[in-house]
Every structure is written in C-alpha cells, then in structure tokens.
C-alpha cells in the first residue's frame, strides 16, 4: 500500500522546479556577504565527526559545494528534480540525488552529519517531530545536525518568488520550539546563533547545531 504524498510536498516541489535556474543565479554569491552564516558552517565542518555528510534540501548545491570546500565528504539531496538538475550542472564533481528529507535514502546510523539549510521551513509544524526523528535515525551516535531557519511564529503563503508565479507555504519558526522538538527527538544542543536580518531579510535568522548523543 503506497502512502499518499501530502499536498504541500507536491506544491513545494513544483514551486522549486519552476524557480530553479533563477534561484541559483540570484543566490549564487549569497554566502559571500553573510559572515555569521559562514561562521556556523565552518564551525559545523570543524566539529562534525569524520564521515559522510548530507545537505538535505540542497537546492542548486551552493551550500553543498561550500561544505565540500571546507573539506567535508558531502552529497546533496533535494525534493525538486529541477534543483538537482541545476546542482549537477553547476557542481559536476559532487553527488546529488532527488529525495525527500522526510524519508531519507540512507541507512540507520550511516551519516556523520546533516545540514538542513533553510529546508525545514516548508514542513508544517505537526510533521516536524517525525522529520527530526528521521534525522536522528540516519545519524551515527555523535553525529551533528545544523539547522538554519527564519525566526518567527507564523505561516506565509508564497505566490511570487525569484521572478515567477508560484504557490507554496513557508513557516517562520520559534527557536525555543525547535530546540524542544530536537530534545524530544534525542538531540543534545551544541550551539545557537540568532542574528539580526541583513539585506533583503525581514526577520532574525537562527542557526542551531545539535548532536545525536553517543
């Protein structure tokens, strides 16, 4: 018996398929001007145990490539075939695959780290506990998780993005709530950074590193 895919997952996939090429171009150099974001990625790279890392919700692969440049063995996974196509074109030396972060195609305990860089923002709150449980499943003991997300406590419907008409929902998330859900999923906190918005951002941005205890 097959499980029906939630409508929001299909809508998110369609939206990112539509914007993939323009998204990649517009955000190509975004990390260059975000010092604190780079600092958290560097801290993750320094702290994560030896082993393989997954960039889940990797989009066109810019963060995947950044992590590879920091010396990590990393591959990207994304819901959107359009995004994966762009990622493979832009970063042909790296591995990318289409997949859902809610049902990762990795064996239990097989990953040293997971980066979910603004990729949990389209998951409704009621499915976040199962999502974090899935992250915990594929991480080895001592493995690290890095989350990035916009801070807030309200849903948004996005009808226009990166020059295209789209239709998908996104969620700004309260830091304390996410930390509680991570604890409930068995993670221990390692680091927290909340910075003020810069450039086009409208809300503070949060970055959390958590550990699956040994």
What does this structure look like?
It holds the Pfam family Methyltransf_25. Residues 53-143 form the Methyltransferase domain. One of its GO terms (biological process) is methylation. This is Methyltransferase domain-containing protein. GO terms for molecular function: methyltransferase activity. By secondary structure, this protein is an alpha/beta fold. It has a single domain (7-211), classed as Vaccinia Virus protein VP39 (Rossmann fold), CATH 3.40.50. Helices cover 34% and strands 30% of the residues. The chain has 6 helices and 9 strands; from the N terminus they run H-H-E-H-E-H-E-E-H-E-E-E-H-E-E. It is globular and about 45 Å long. The mean pLDDT is 96.
Produce a short descriptive summary.
The protein is α/β, with parallel strands linked by helices.
Structural class by helix and strand composition? alpha/beta
Main sheet: strands, sense, barrel? 7 strands, mixed
Q: Compute the number of strand runs.
A: 9
How many structural units, i.e. domains?
Answer: 1
Low-confidence stretches: none
Strand content: 25-35%
Rg estimate, integer Å: 16 Å
Q: What portion of residues is helical?
A: 25-40%
**What fold name goes in the CATH topology slot?**
Rossmann fold
Task: Report the total helices.
Answer: 6
Kindly report the spatial arrangement of strands forming the biggest sheet.
3-2-1-4-5-9-8
In whole angstroms, how far apart are the ends? 36 Å
Secondary-structure element string: HHEHEHEEHEEEHEE
